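Task card 7
Instruction: Convert sequence to structure tokens.
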Amino acid sequence: MTLKKIKELLNCRLLCGSDKLLIDVKSAKASDLMSDVLRFSGPGKLLLTGLVNVQVIRTCDIAGICAVVFVRGKEPSAETVKLSKDCDIALLTTNLSMFDSCGILHANGIKGVIIDSKN
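Output:
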């Protein structure tokens, strides 16, 4: 599913990354714990979070996450948006809760990230 379709489904406002709207998002993870985010990485991954600090962007950059959706109407600082642009990560925000956002994405075919518990 494209990031553009996700933007429409979650009624998001795009904060940066308009050139990323055609990215094919294959899976998503919802977390406010950045150490958990580091456990999944790679292209085509989306993060949903309520955290809006620069550490989110730094973590996503390391993990190779292509886009972040801030839930509950959260707004990142200008510093966070600038870092996201520098790291080439799309940022969106939605007024939906994390639970509702995940439910909508799952109902429309986005799979969650499965982490092998043996690792």
